[in-house]
Structure formats: C-alpha cells, structure tokens
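Propose amino acids for all 225 sites.
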C-alpha cells in the first residue's frame, strides 16, 4: 500500500513509518499541514495517517479540505486526545477511524488493515441490493433506482453495515462500535445526524422509506428482496 503520514512529532513519525515499512508498505511523509495537504491533493494513497495537532494547522481542517476536494482516501487520525467529542468531531469532518497516542504498533497496523479492507471490501459479496438501493463494494459506488448518489466515506460505511444487516434492528451502540470503533456517548447525536444524511440522499431519488427508526432500540433497513 501507499501511505501518507502527516505528523510533526519526529519520534512518532519514525515509529509509524517503521511499522508500515516493516509490513511492506510504501510511505510518504510530511511534518506540517501545508506540505501534507499538498501531497494529499496531488497524489493517490491507499490511506492517510493524520495527526490532529500540527504547527501550521490542524487535522480537522486538513481532513475537511481533503473531503471537499472529493478525495475519498481513508483517513486515520492520531491524537493524544481521548474525549469522545473529539473523536466525533473527527468523524464529522470525514475521518474513518481514530487512534489514541501512545499506541501499540500492532494496533496501528491492525487499524490500517481494517480501514483499507473496509474501503476495498474485496472479499465476499461485491454488490449489495435492497429494493432500489444498490452498493458496489469494490467501486465504492451507491445507486438509487439506477442513479449514482455521492456519499462520504462515513455515510458509505454506515450504509454498507445497514445493508449487510438488513431487516435487523441495530442499536446506536452497535453502530458506533462496528462502523467507527468508538464507544457510543448518549450525550451526542452524531449517529442520528448520519442516518438523517443517508435518508435525505435516498429520498432525493425515491419516495420509498428504507431506513426506519425503532424507538428506544435503534435503526433498521427494511428490505423485501
């Protein structure tokens, strides 16, 4: 894999690079926001590992700018912050996962592999269907009644999980853990926000309601096929 590491702490950067290269990956690196963003804009990577605190900017803005350029490369955030609201903010700007410093090198590699595996999903089913909804996993494309609909990485990953568990009620706790690998905080509404995003994008192309809210239990994607 080709990996971009944007991290200003030299010791962390050296460790991350060593772990990645030991596992056969090619690594490009930047120690500031400007250089890192330029590399992300002008090159193709399989994953971007991004520090939140940089001398000339922050990871939130870089991640948002990357997504604003329609770059769908998975982003793994590194940060010493452990608060749930920080992790939620990262997800909201388009990050795919979050790893707290200090971290175990084996966990870093496991998360990188898990994120890229979710991104490609090359094993098992390649197409998921539910009525007018169709997801092509390899291409990471979503269609409603034959019309392609743009989704963010987080929206896509959430939809795939719902489709793979169609007709089953899924709690917010399960979604938080299985889709984003974080503990669900009852004081936040980010899962409801992403469900709302998905509903709107689906309803823009069909009158059918697919995602149902089950009071005090969670959500279910209803499919008859």
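Proposal:
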């Amino acid at each position: 894999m080709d990996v971009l590491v944007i991290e200003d702490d030299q010791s962390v950067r050296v460790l991350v690079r060593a772990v990645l290269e030991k596992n056969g990956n090619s690594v490009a690196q930047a120690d500031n926001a400007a250089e890192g963003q330029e590399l992300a804009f002008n090159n193709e990577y399989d994953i971007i590992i991004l520090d939140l605190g940089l001398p000339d900017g922050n990871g939130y803005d870089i991640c948002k700018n990357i997504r604003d350029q329609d770059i769908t490369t998975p982003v793994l955030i590194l940060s010493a912050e452990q608060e749930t609201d920080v992790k939620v903010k990262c997800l909201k700007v388009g990050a795919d996962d979050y790893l707290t410093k200090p971290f175990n090198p084996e966990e870093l590699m496991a998360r990188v592999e898990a994120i890229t595996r979710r991104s490609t999903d090359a094993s098992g089913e390649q197409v998921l269907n539910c009525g007018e909804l169709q997801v092509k996993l390899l291409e990471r494309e979503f269609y409603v009644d034959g019309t392609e609909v743009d989704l963010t990485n987080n929206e896509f990953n959430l939809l795939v999980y719902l489709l793979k568990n169609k007709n089953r009620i899924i709690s917010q706790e399960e979604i938080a853990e299985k889709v984003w690998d974080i503990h669900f905080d009852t004081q936040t509404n980010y899962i409801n926000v992403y469900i709302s995003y998905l509903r709107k994008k689906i309803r823009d192309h069909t009158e059918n309601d697919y995602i149902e809210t089950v009071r005090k239990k969670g959500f279910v994607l209803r499919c008859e096929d």
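The chain has a mean pLDDT of 89. The CA atoms of residues 29 and 117 lie 22 Å apart.
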